[in-house]
Amino acid sequence: MSEQLTNCHDCGAKPGEVHQSGCDVEHCSVCGGQWIQCGHGKHDSRFARWTGLWPGSAEAAALGVDLNTFYAQGYHQVFFVKPKKA
What we know:
The chain is mainly α and 86 residues long. It has a domain of 45 residues. The protein is 26% helix and 0% strand. The chain contains 4 helices and no strands. The longest helix is centred in the C-terminal third of the chain and has 7 residues. The N and C termini lie far apart (35 Å). The model has no long low-confidence stretch (mean pLDDT 92).
């Protein structure tokens, strides 16, 4: 993978920064879905920071699947959900 890190195309967050409120790219740390659609109140925006790469692209490449398969198979729920403390 040789993608260049970019700012978030929706809210402009730089790699490592928290998305701006209402960003349609931010993933929910509770369910792994698009946060703007689910609206979970316990969401941790610091966990869901912008990485500089499209969400799931690096993970899909590491798994050897395309991005559509990554989401269809529910891998986003594994990679984007913050583990609960014991």
